[in-house]
Design brief:
CATH architecture of chain C: 3-Layer(aba) Sandwich
Number of helices of chain A: 2
Distance between the termini of chain C: 12 Å
Strand content of chain A: 25-35%
Number of strands of chain C: 11
Shape of chain A: elongated
Radius of gyration of chain A: 16 Å
Number of helices of chain C: 5
Helix content of chain C: 10-25%
Strand content of chain C: 15-25%
Strand order of the largest sheet of chain C: 2-1-3-4-11-10-9-6-7
Distance between the termini of chain A: 8 Å
CATH class of chain A: Alpha Beta
Order of helices and strands of chain A: EHEHE
Structural class of chain C: alpha/beta
Bound molecules: adenosine-5'-diphosphate, magnesium ion
Strand order of the largest sheet of chain A: 2-1-3
Largest sheet of chain A: 3 strands, antiparallel
CATH architecture of chain A: 2-Layer Sandwich
Oligomer: heterotetramer
Chains: A alpha+beta (79), B alpha+beta (721), C alpha/beta (226)
CATH superfamily of chain A: Phosphoribosylformylglycinamidine synthase subunit PurS
Chain lengths: 79, 721, 226, 79
């Protein structure tokens, strides 16, 4: 089972990369795009035979322990 | 074997016939792949070999000349210096970040393969005109890539060059140089020592990276091909390289390794063939044992250019100890074969011999061409009209031309002080690092004057070598030896071939005169896209030393009131190519006058004066005069709040190029001693002015110091953004 | 009594040798080099977490190093009221461990910065005792993620507890910006509340020897020894 | 309308970060996690009033032109 973890900087933190992308997109004519932010995508495999709860708990704990720094980041799990 | 397949592998039908006749049988596809890699320009130098043989490669300090992973020179006591330059031009055009990063990775491996610890890198990068988005993208990516790799592994970048010119629009150049320190009694070579030695694979797993990269590097490629070539991009992993470097250096210093060879272009193929050939032995390798990142065919394994990999030969009895050390560094390690006495290269896969070739045919019978070449026509003499040129406009022209501006946007992205031994960072005429734990310093500079070389390849190359030489001399570094990277367009064009032949000749002449042998180098041909050949760009990387770090000169002004003297001989206005080009006086390459002949004895004489005066502590600061003349040299010397005032009968002379040109700063109280010394030596000099506070004055005309300095320092970033 | 110290090496550390030389030359005492997989630490006065790209700086700078085996010992060392100094990557590791507040995010210009910078001391602590108020120090920086960030509550705490040790400033003659990497309040280094743990982005170990461009980095070790 | 674009390195391209993260997770006891790869997450706003087709076409073209380096990367659009 492939899991996607989306990690983004918390809203109040200035994310200069997003600003740069937005600026470039706008100057390329993509003026409808706004509020661009860049984050991280972490993808990994978990065995299919573990339960939904166990899965959620494991991912959560890995995020807290290593994958995410909760001073600056927040995350969302997909799949 | 069908013709198309042969041609796809970059072999000519004639070349294929040579192989076919020798073997008297058909080739396996894997064998064809091997010839494709090994008979490629990049590996066997088939076009340049004949000419490279003429270069001086030896003198009393050369420990290892060309032919190994890097050249090594003797720095007295037990200290040796290994260095080499390498190109990664085409990969950097296709994927600038990874292409340039892996270029740095590759050259660093060349250095530590010799048992040397890398202590510095330099780079020489050239791009097309900055007006296009593509050039901005390439510049950003290349600088980011070079920085990322070197910073991460922790080797200081101490200098280089960065130029812009239209012939590089579709063919940027990325040359990376590395310098390492080795104990003379602990140098490692690629030659295996004993039959039966185990061949071991060390480092990253093999993947599909850069398959066909080696033959791609020698293709004339057109815009359309770009997409097709793309999937083979190599990605660098500097963290892995750092571990690999520490692991290999530990293995070597523990005496557990017999010989070592990095897997560069054409990966496992070229490294194993090279080992066999150097040792006059055979190799047997079981491809099933090669650590893989993904399933690969034998063919792909043979040609993969995955980065951060090494091949070593060890004694069987050390197998366990080697494994232990590499485990600590978390490096993959596998015994994949052994050294045999067959003088054949044998690769096995799935219990089948997929390759079984005599080393002789691959190496000794590699093609060598004597290609046709033309010598450039003599140029007519022309007098240019300078009457409409205004001093203010000349200065503006320099301050709006990227080639003259402060390059800190580039080198601030590089870590230049890591390792704690850096003495002169980028931004000075040569980079200087200390040999750890000693008083000795190493200086290095990379240079090329493509415009000069297009005008006159032989003389132009002499000027290029002299430029590196002056860069070192200005810092009171004694020039010792050269590495070079010959970047040219297609040698199938006899005009280009002529540039190649004549510039090698110029390199030879200058290297003999300066007693700076060529100990390593690289050739990159076919640098052209859509029929536009690059300007000939044979880059010189020169290395020198001073045994006493306290004797090094600075390039920056020291004190108000000190006198400014000019040494050397000015090139006439009509024969200063960069002046004519950059002040838009000569608009077409055909218009230029021939170069003035460069008197190398004169270069040496003036250089010796600079060295002697430096040792006498009479020189407070010194810089060489190159593109942009005295004016540009003075701009680079400005420091803190110091400026200059000068007097000169014709201000245009301030922008002319020079032979043996140096700007030196002298204390008033030493002036007499210095001038009588110079007179005694028969070295002409001109006292043109002095150092003042926060001002620039030319013939009593005052310029806005802050405006000029601000533009000099900040315009680069403005222009490229 | 001689001053004892140690430097921890992680895979990818590349300023560990520099830090060792810095300590050897300036403290003249015993200096240990400890591999990250060790589980014990000798009793020393000062531990340095050196600069570099521990674990490639993959994921986040300092994140994986902060989970190394030796870290428990490093935390104990700090809890024992002994000195702990994190330089550059070491600073990032200290925030990842949680010994120091805040985090270091990408430089505001999104580019690696390798150049001289200028700093001065903000609040007094044992690491900057020998530095005069308003004295401008010239020390190189070399980082990609040196942009200090914390939330406003934490910032207030840092100020109230006088935990800000260094801030970036303008040099007399340089055209360097006042706040080179965009750090909150130009913070270049902070301590913990007890002030025995310091994290800083500039590299004092590259500015102490006679041949270095500046010798201002000495002042930190001199402060600790005096 | 908030759009998520997941950008990952193409399958055959080396992704050095993933294996280091995996190693670290494993030694923290998360041994079930495998095949870890790290990519980029780009999030942006598009006006609600544009049609589905137009939206898809705009994003696609922005990805091709700027957001994704198709020499080494591939992408997936969510939301
Ligand atoms: N690509 C680069 N990498 C590192 N340093 C560079 C690079 N380009 C320029 N520099 C630095 O800027 C200095 C000035 O470069 P340049 O304008 O070519 O003048 P010079 O005639 O002194 O070589 C060089 O000496 C070098 O140290
Ligand atoms: Mg130069």
């Amino acid at each position: 089972m492939r899991i996607k973890i989306l990690v983004r900087l918390k809203g109040q933190i200035l994310e200069p990369q997003g600003k740069v992308i937005e600026h470039s997109l706008n100057s390329l004519g993509f003026t409808e795009f706004s509020n661009i932010r860049q984050g991280k995508l972490i993808e990994l495999d978990l065995p299919d035979n573990i339960s939904k709860e166990e899965k959620a708990q494991k991912i959560d704990s890995a995020c807290k322990k290593l994958l995410v720094n909760d001073i600056i980041e927040e995350y969302e799990v997909l799949g | 074997m069908n013709e198309e397949l042969i041609l796809q592998h970059g072999l000519t039908l004639d070349e294929f016939q040579v192989i076919r006749k020798y073997l008297n049988r058909d080739l396996s596809i894997e064998e064809l792949g091997i010839f494709s890699a090994m008979w490629n320009e990049h590996c066997c130098y088939k076009t340049s070999k004949k000419w490279l043989k003429k270069l001086p490669t030896n003198n009393e300090i050369v420990i290892q000349g060309p032919g190994e992973n890097a050249g090594v020179i003797d720095l007295q006591d037990n200290d040796g210096i290994a260095f080499k330059i390498e190109s990664h031009n085409h990969p950097s055009y296709i994927e600038p970040f990874n292409g340039s990063a892996t270029g740095v990775g590759g050259i660093l491996r060349d250095i530590f393969t010799m048992g040397a610890r890398p202590i510095a890198t330099l780079d020489s990068i050239r791009f097309g005109l900055i007006e296009t988005e593509k050039t901005k993208y390439l510049l950003n990516g290349v600088v980011h890539g070079i920085g990322h790799y070197g910073n991460c592994i922790g080797i200081p970048n101490i200098g280089g060059e960065c130029e812009f010119e239209s012939t590089y629009d579709f063919n940027n150049l990325v040359n990376a140089m590395a310098v390492g320190h080795v104990q003379k009694d602990k140098i490692f070579y690629s030659k295996p020592k004993s039959i039966g030695g185990l061949i071991v694979y060390i480092g990253s797993k093999t993947g599909k990276d850069g398959i066909h990269g080696a033959s791609m590097a020698s293709d004339v490629f057109s815009e359309e091909d770009e997409d097709e070539k793309r999937p083979s991009v190599q990605v660098g992993d500097p963290f892995m390289e750092k571990l690999l470097m520490e692991g290999c250096l530990e293995l070597m210093s523990s005496g557990l390794i017999e010989s070592m060879q990095d897997m560069g272009a054409a990966g496992i193929t070229s490294s194993s063939v090279e080992m066999a050939s150097k040792g006059n032995v055979g190799v047997y390798i079981n491809l099933d044992k090669v650590p893989l990142r993904q399933p690969l065919s034998a063919y792909e394994i043979l040609l993969s250019e995955s980065q951060e990999r090494m091949l070593a030969v060890i004694d069987k009895k050390n197998n366990h100890k080697v494994r232990e050390i590499l485990q600590k560094w978390q490096i993959d390690y596998e015994v994949i074969g052994e050294i045999t006495d067959t003088k054949r290269v044998v690769f096995e896969s799935n219990n089948k011999k997929v390759v079984d070739l005599p080393v002789e045919i691959i190496v000794n019978d590699a093609p060598e061409y004597d290609r046709e070449f033309y010598i450039p026509r003599k140029r007519k003499n022309k007098d240019f009209d300078f009457s409409k040129i205004k001093l203010e406009d000349m200065i503006i022209n320099l301050l709006t031309n990227l080639n003259y501006l402060d390059k800190s946007w580039v080198f601030d992205q590089y870590d230049s002080t890591v390792m704690g031994d850096t003495i002169r960072e980028p931004g000075q005429s040569s980079g200087i690092v200390k040999i750890h734990g000693t008083q000795k310093v190493i200086g290095a500079s990379t240079d090329c004057n493509p415009l000069y070389i297009r005008i006159n390849p032989y003389e132009g190359m002499k000027y290029t070598v002299a430029e590196s030489y002056r860069n070192l001399i200005a810092c009171n570094i004694n020039p010792l030896a050269i590495t070079n990277n010959l970047n040219f367009a297609s040698p199938l064009d006899p005009n280009i071939m002529g540039e190649l032949v004549l510039s090698i000749h110029g390199l030879k002449t200058a290297a003999i005169k300066f007693n700076t042998p060529i100990v390593s180098g690289n050739v990159s041909l076919y640098n052209q896209t859509n029929e536009i050949p690059i300007k000939p760009t044979p880059v010189v990387g020169m290395v020198g030393s001073n045994m006493n770090l306290n004797k090094i000169n600075t390039n920056k002004f020291c004190e108000i009131g000190n006198k400014i003297l000019i040494l050397g001989k000015q090139l006439s206005k009509n024969c200063s190519p960069y002046l004519l080009q950059d002040q838009k006086i000569a608009l077409n390459i055909c218009e230029f006058n021939d170069l003035e002949i460069l008197d190398l004895d004169f270069e040496k004489k003036i250089a010796n004066c600079v060295l002697e005066l430096s040792d006498l502590k009479c020189i407070m600061s010194c810089n060489d005069i190159s593109r942009g003349g005295i004016f540009s040299s003075l701009l680079k010397m400005q420091y803190r709040d110091l400026g200059f005032k000068v007097k000169i009968s014709d201000p245009i002379d301030l922008f002319c190029e020079y032979s043996a040109g140096y700007v030196i700063e002298i204390r008033s109280k030493d002036l007499e001693e210095v001038t009588s010394f110079l007179t005694k030596k028969g070295a002409e000099y001109v006292e043109i002015g002095e150092i003042i506070k926060e001002g620039i004055e030319i013939n009593s005309k005052k310029f806005d110091y802050f405006d000029i300095m601000n533009k000099y320092r900040n315009n680069f970033e403005k222009i490229i953004s | 009594m001689s001053f004892k110290s140690a430097v921890i090496t992680f895979p990818g550390s590349n300023c560990d040798r520099d830090a060792l030389c810095y300590l050897k030359d300036l403290t003249k005492g015993e200096v240990h080099n400890i591999w990250h997989e060790e589980t014990s630490l000798p009793k020393v006065d000062l531990v340095i977490l050196p600069g570099g790209f521990s674990f490639g700086d993959y994921l986040r700078s300092g994140a994986m190093a902060s989970k190394s085996k030796i870290i428990d010992e490093v935390v104990k060392h700090a809890n024992d009221n002994r000195y702990l100094l994190g330089i550059c990557n070491g600073f990032q590791i200290l925030t990842e461990i949680g010994l120091l507040e805040g985090a270091l995010i990408r430089n505001k210009k999104l580019k690696f910065l390798g150049k001289n910078c200028f700093i001065k001391k903000k609040f007094k602590n044992n690491f900057n005792l020998s530095i005069k108020d308003n004295q401008i120090l010239q020390i190189p920086v070399a980082h990609n993620e040196g942009n200090f960030y914390c939330d406003s509550e934490t910032l207030n705490l840092l100020k109230n507890n006088e935990q800000i040790a260094f801030e970036y400033c303008k040099g007399e003659f340089s055209n360097t910006e006042e706040n080179i990497n965009g750090s909150l309040e130009a913070i270049a280094g902070i301590t913990n509340k007890k002030k025995n743990v310091l994290g800083m982005m500039p590299h004092p170990e590259r500015a102490y020897s006679d041949f270095h461009q500046s010798q201002d980095g000495r002042l930190i070790i001199e402060s600790l020894i005096s």
